[in-house]
Amino acid sequence: MEAADPDVPPAKGEGLEIPGEQTGPCPTETDGDEPDSVPEELCAIPAEPDSVVEEAGAEPDSVPEDLGTIPAEPPAPQSNGPLSTADGKVDAREELSDKELSDSASTDNVLEDSSEFGPPAVAVGGSGGPAGEEVVVPAVTTHRDEDVTAESWRKRRKHVFVLSEAGKPIYSRYGNEEALSSTMGVMMALVSFIQSGDNAIRSICSDDRKLVFVQQGPLVLVSVSRTLQSEQQLRQELLYVYYQIISMLTQVSITRIFERKKNYDLRRLLAGSEKILDRLLNLVESDPSFLLNAVRCLPLPASLRDSLGALLQKAITSNLVFSILVARSQLVTTVQEKTVIEDCRLEPTDLHLLLNLISATSAFQAGEIWTPICLPRFNPDGYFYAYISYLDAECTVCLILLSTDKESFYSVSDCKKRIEEGMRTQGYLQALSAGGSSQSPSYSVGLVGVPDLRHFMYKPLDIPENYRQLPQFTSPELESPYHSERERHRLFDLYHYLHSRIHSGCRPLRLIYHVAAKETLLAWVTSKFELYTCFSPLVTKAGAINVLTKLLRWIKKEEDRLFIRYPPRYSPTPNPGKSVKGGRSDGAENGFFAGL
Amino acid sequence: MAASRDYYLALCGRPVHFEKANPVNCVFFDEANKQVFAVRSGGATGVVVKGLEDKNPISFRMEDKGEVKCIKFSLGNKILAVQRTSKSVDFLNFIPDNPQIEYTQECKTKNANILGFCWTSSTEIVFITDQGIEFYQVLPEKRSLKLLKNQNINVNWYMYCPESSVILLSTTVLGNVLQPFHFKGGTMSKLVKFEIELPAAPKSSKLSLSERDIAMATIYGQLYVLFLRHHSRTSNSTGAEVVLYHLPREGLCKKTHILKLNRTGKFALNVVDNLVVVHHQDTETSMIFDIRLKGEFDGTVTLHQLVLPARSIQPYQIPVAGPASVTSPSPVPCKLYSSSWIVFQPDIIISASEGYLWNLQVILEPVVNLLPDKGKLMDFLLQRKECKMVILSVCSQMLSEPDRGTLAVIATVFDKLNNEYKKYLEAEQSYTMVIETGQSKSNPPPKRPVRTQAVIDQFDMYTHVLSVFTETKEASNKFIIAVLMEYVRSLNLFQIAVQHYLYELVIKTLVQHNLFYMLHQFLQYHVLSDSKPLACLLLSLESIYPPAHQLSLDMLKRLSTANDEIVEVLLSKQQVLAALRFIRGIGGHDSVSARKFLDAAKQTEDEMLFYTIFRFFEQRNQRLRGSPHFTPGEHCE
Amino acid sequence: MMAAGGAGQEKQLAPALLSFFIYNPKLGSREGEEEKKILFYHPNEVEKNEKIRNVGLCEAIVQFTRTFSPSKPAKSLHTQKNRQFFNEPEEDFWMVMIVRNPIIEKHHKDGKPVAEYQEEELLDKVYSSVLQQCYSMYKLFNGTFHKAVEDGGVRVLKERLEKFFHRYLQTLHLQSCDLLDVFCGISFFPLDKMTYLKIQSFINRMEESLSIVKYTAFLYNDQLIWSGLEQDDMRILYKYLTTSLFPRHTEPELAGRDSPIRAEIPGNLQHYGRFLTGPLNLNDPEAKCRFPKIFVNTDDTYEELHLIVYKVTLSTLSYSSMQPTLDFCRKLDSIVGPQLTVLASDICEQYNINKRISGSEKEPQFKFIYFNHMNLAEKSTIHMRKTICIIKLLSSRADEDEEIIVKAMSDYWVVGKKSDQRELYVILNQKNANLIEVNEEVKKLCATQFNNIFFLD
């Protein structure tokens, strides 16, 4: 995925990554400047020397490789906690210099915020902070400082803006917020003007663009798009952006912040996480997972998948609710705490956002990470504590363990060791990380063996116990003639288009057969599945039907490999807690179990 | 000049000149051979025979055996017949510069007097006596005659019409019962006799129908007996009239037409170009009548008024000493309508006193101005022999100032022309049909319809009238279009297939004036019928009028024989997929050249497209040959 | 405005015109003079500041969208309760139409009605075209805005706008707008070549004999046969005739000679002609010849004409450049009346023959709409309110050829084809047909209805 990220020149990455790596003992300390979100958890790690040493020692050789393969990434939210307060002050001072915000106010502000996540950090660590700052800047120059009056800026396929009710810029996909503050001011003005008429703005359409407005609590999100996407789809994307922000800050805290200070500059809390949003926005346009709201599973022999599931099942500890194994950002298997499953399940959105956050943060690629994370769809106001660790040198296989107890780092880390152990002994790791083998994680449409078929997306609706399952889908990799990004965008535009038609709010459809200029597409929704196919434009209708039957037959044959058929579950834990979705909003620590 | 334009009758330019009649020189005219005989002193001092056709006159001598009553060559000038007495006719096998001995034939009937004779073929001759007629065959080598047939009947006078070889005999006391005989290939057939209604009930029982008041002529292929009736029987209408009796081969002779002369006095008749010309000596003018033109029909007879105002024959200059003269002093004007004129049918005028023979001619140009009613004018012109150029000029004239016709008039003219045109086309068609279906054996074998000048086809109209007209600056484009549409309408009215060049003209004109929407509507209603050339013409307009592309594609589609063209058009528009879909639609996708489509796809520089097309043909190869590869022949590497 | 009530407790309110205004930002650019910008505002009762505010919003939105595409500013604004449509027909002259979304009023147990706005119902395409037609219609009868200002300044323009829209707005039936409003097409009368040519020469001769007649259009049975006017002018005039003028003078068109209208016409008894505009009774010397003025070719020659509508059992129109006099009317009546009457029966015959041939008496089990952008030809068996959504499917894309077949939840099939400027929409209600069968049906339709045009399969 990283490789696909157009905006980050790997070359830069190498050099910049170095300071991060040098601080071997505390790899996660490297960079970033998120002042208040997660410092304290990180301190836990240096306090656990051996694990770190082990980390460092375990794969020294891996480091250079990383440099080679992994481009520069923006700082991760949890990083350099130790300096947070200092940074906070720095911020404040900077602001003081140009903003009306008073020093005290700002620090106070910071502290206030931090209080939401427990006591301010006390630990002292490496000097990653400044480095981090530097990292941010160059990595960003590519388009964060784009000239917002330039034609090239206007020509962008899709702009996304986030601003506060006070009209303060929070995020802009292209161009720097300061330069856009007036534009965002107008946006806010429009929103509130129409609000004043006891009405709500939805969108503005011109011949070649759609401007979509979404208001979520104190935040206003605006998308300016030239794509074929429908208003709803654009709105959905904006919600993804919103949730991604929530996943880092939680809803309550944001609400609270703005209750306290209308014109608070939220960028101070999000600074550095633009990369995550940038990446998200690139993803939603190219990864069907978001369109279909389903997860893509790594094709695996059912047996292998089951034994991996079993492995996860065994390696558990109390308060561990989700174990997720991912390879090449495709789901291998996931296990949920029984009681959790009873009345709710992991939402694909949450998983997408989580994976995006992880992949967007190269710092995670070394060592163990322990960081609070919010699953907005699950509970927008609470935190889970995520243990994240890559199991192989190439950082293709990633284990994510979600706990509700922020103190349980060691026990969770121990689970990881057991799992890793199990996989190593069984040689599963090779099976997973071995790319390009017959078990190639992504497959070619050629496997189906029908010439006129170019691509498809298949979302089964008849998986056993579907209601407890993550919605899944399968789709071959994009091959010629869709190698260029332009063509890929075009195709996904069409998919979006079909999707919006067939799921149209006012007039949904069962089937669409569309002979377009460069391809023929078919979308079909039945009780058993949802299918999108792309044919050669010269296919005949009879031909297309024929292809469909072949395709469906093939999927039936392959479904055990393509999908998680029978999700494993934890055996009941000693103290089964029945979960409560959305616990007390002020569930500061252990947001999740606050509800108990 | 303007005046001279008025004369619509004229004497022919090169008359026959002969020595004028005088005591020693008798002049005879043979209607059959149209020859003038000048017999000087009974032939002893020479006989000169001149015809209209033959340039060099025949001249010979014959011994004077008394006064010559009548002298005529047989058809072909082989045998000369001379009547000197009332009882017999002398014959002479004529061989130039080789005097022969004469032989004689007396009339069979005792004490009958020969009124005259006439040759009906090169060897057959008819004697008309006061008691009947005798039909002989001449046997030159035997130097004798053989009686073929004879018929006894009292004859007052007779009249012969060579064209129809019919002899008319005036019988009965009043002489108004006419008995026609028809001669053909050695047979003499008696036709039904008929009676001429005399003006008023005759006072006494004396001959009251004179030969001078009767003429025979073929008009529009039919034989008519023309009777000059000096006083209309119906007292109310004054003035003389000409009554036409139609004399068919078989069946009754019927009175069919009456030509109102509205004047009295001395008249003479001619028939020129199917027009009846009536010369009036008192006024020295002539009137013309066309029995084909509308007249008032009273149930049995049609009354005709003169077509044009009476006019004199065009003044004529007599070339002194005739054509032979080396020095030509100023010519003297010829006295027209002189009492010394003798008129013969159909169109001969002889001035015995002057020694000239003319045939009468009709000049059409002046008529144009004398007949303001364009419809009537067309009806008139279309019946004339030499009408084409006149008609075309009339058309051009009615389309341009100053005396421009209204669309209504223009429409009628077009309709009349196309009506004639259509008749010819149909004749042609049925003829070729007969020929093809091999019914030609069936006798009589069909004869190819002759194309008269009255047939004005689209090409004539296009070249002489319309193409010129559309270039004129003066006319408003509205008018120009209207005219063109009228012509197209007229052609359609008669179900005549419109030629491409006319459509081209319409389109060119519309385009010139940017009347594209008009053009579009015309095509929409298929006013311009489909054809490949038209479709191509439309394609060429696309740059100035984009919808033309659609129009032409539709047209090609309707033609249903233009699939290749359609493909070419689509490819030229880089619509490669469309082209391929179309081909497939008509089931030609297995045979079509892959190379052509791949090239077209390549030109679009659209990789996507090329990929699609390439894969399509790979699959075709797979299907047809079991391998996706192209054969070298296809040049698709 | 109240449409047929929904099921049980529900009550449905159709979309409604909330307001309609025309302004020119250049006219009141100075502070405090904003009111000057407003040239027309409906409803007029609205309080001044409210007007200014709403106009302000529109300006703001237009300006704002220019920051992203300077050349293509906003066309519409969607809000929860309504939609606003913007149109700048002439430079700096903006027309705005605000339409309320349809509402479903649900009744709670406690009896409180809750309004639920159907935000997805309205289609921009439809109402944008309605707005454009508002302008075209105004222009047809009043000329351009700029011309009005040249003629007599803003005051005159305001008067004209007031005079025109005051009546016109009431004729907008927003609840029943649909696909056909988008096309605003012209329905042509099918006719054989010969009859068509006859009509041609009739028109030419009439224009020849009545010199002040500049253009002529010829309609039969509310369908166009010939237009001397250019396409765009004809388009809007046709709309006016068929939706406004003719309905006011309804009578059985195809009744033929023995239709009873003879009685209605005072004066001439030898034919059935009469004026739909201008004098009613030609024998009344007092009869005044006021013919509506129309403005055509406004972007080049800018012609001002008088609209003369003369109708026999069919209609012909003439546009004369001079003020027609009563004598002229008499002349026209005497020339045109009889000929038209004859032509009318000719056409009527043809019409019946065609019907017999094509056997189009029996309704096919599919309904369709056909439109050709090239000549605006429109052919349809229905107004497609229900399935209007399909225009999104095709028209949303550039002018590439495409085809789309959808199966709705109701199991109806809807087929849309677009081929070289032509659009065809077909609805089939064969519930359990499959894709291929549907395709066959459409092929059949094309073979019967459209075999004479190039329509790619």
Tell me what the structure shows:
Chain A is of the alpha+beta class and 596 residues long. Among the domains of chain A are: 81-286, no CATH class; 300-440, Dynein light chain 2a, cytoplasmic (Beta-Lactamase, 2-Layer Sandwich). Chain A has 21 helices and 16 strands. Chain A has helices spanning 10-22, 39-44, 49-58, 62-69, 84-98, 103-115, 128-144, 151-155, 177-196, 231-249, 251-260, 267-270, 274-286, 288-292, 302-314, 338-343, 348-359, 409-426, 428-433, 485-502, 541-562, and strands at 158-164, 169-172, 201-206, 210-216, 219-225, 295-296, 320-327, 330-336, 369-373, 384-390, 397-403, 453-460, 472-473, 509-515, 520-525, 529-535. In chain A, strands 2-1-5-4-3 form a 5-stranded antiparallel sheet. A 5-stranded antiparallel sheet of chain A has the order 8-7-11-10-9. The model of chain A is unreliable at 1-141, 436-440 and 572-596 (pLDDT under 50). With 637 residues, chain B is an alpha+beta fold. Chain B is 29% helix and 26% strand. Chain B has 14 helices and 33 strands. The N and C termini of chain B lie far apart (83 Å). Chain C has 457 residues and is α+β, with helices and mostly antiparallel strands. In chain C, 35% of the residues lie in helices and 25% in strands. In chain C, strands 9, 10, 11, 12, 13 and 14 form a 6-stranded antiparallel sheet that branches. Chain C has a 5-stranded antiparallel sheet with strand order 3-2-6-5-4, with helices on both faces. The longest helix of chain C is centred in the C-terminal third of the chain and has 33 residues, at 326-358. The two termini of chain C are 42 Å apart. The relative contact order of chain C is 0.08. Chains in contact: A-B, A-C, B-C. The interface between A and C is large, with 44 and 45 residues. Strand 3 of chain A pairs antiparallel with strand 4 (74-79) of chain C.
